[in-house]
Specification:
By secondary structure, the chain is of the alpha+beta class. The chain has two domains: about 110 residues, Alpha-Beta Plaits, CATH 3.30.70; about 60 residues, Alpha-Beta Plaits, CATH 3.30.70. The chain is built from six helices and eight strands; from the N terminus they run E-H-H-E-E-H-E-E-H-E-E-H-E-H. The strands form four sheets. The chain has a two-stranded antiparallel ribbon with strand order 1-8. Strands 2-3 form a two-stranded antiparallel ribbon. Strand 4 and strand 5 form a beta hairpin. The radius of gyration is 17 Å and the shape is globular. The model has no long low-confidence stretch (mean pLDDT about 95).
């Protein structure tokens, strides 16, 4: 089963730990203090937004029918064997046309103007246990790395336990 970064919105407090961990994981030094001093500022690939009274962490969903793949005029966006949609390490370089930025339904592809590069979640941040940096850093458990099937099953069990306990 393919794992994804899933969100438990009710748990997010907007601490931005996920954003910081993502940037550090994509830095050259891979440490917070080292990343701060790097000439090239590391970029986060997850964004915490305010939606009404709630905080909402957003990152690439690596869509099954990814609009960014179809919109990429350079052909630099591709899907890896693991199902990750990325433009890094491929045969064709990103030309900075920003078509992917415009069509992303989640608004999570950022334009790196200096390098003419579209930047998005690439899952190049997995630790030795295979957990993404943003999930590992989340102190409230708002981010979960699991398959949709397992996550849904766990949520149903949790709901039933609360419903039965409330009787």
């Amino acid at each position: 089963m393919v794992k994804e970064v899933l969100i438990r919105y009710e748990r997010c407090v907007g601490c931005l730990s996920c954003e910081l961990a993502c940037a550090v994981a994509h830095s050259e030094s891979k440490t917070l203090f080292g990343a701060i001093g790097e000439a090239k500022r590391p970029l986060k690939r997850i964004f915490v937004h305010q939606a009404g009274a709630k905080k909402v962490p957003l990152n690439c969903r690596h869509c099954g029918e990814a609009p960014c793949l179809d919109a990429c005029i350079a052909g630099s966006m591709y899907r890896t064997e693991d199902g990750i949609v990325t433009n890094e390490g491929g045969e064709r370089p990103c030309v900075g046309c920003w078509m992917c930025v415009m069509v992303c339904p989640y608004g999570v592809i950022r334009s790196q103007l200096e390098e003419k590069l579209a930047v998005k979640c690439d899952r190049n941040c997995l630790d030795d246990a295979g957990v993404p940096a943003c999930v590992r850093a989340c102190p409230t458990g708002a981010l979960v790395y699991d398959s949709i099937e397992k996550y849904s099953e766990d949520r149903r069990k949790e709901f039933l336990a609360k419903a039965i306990g409330g009787l």
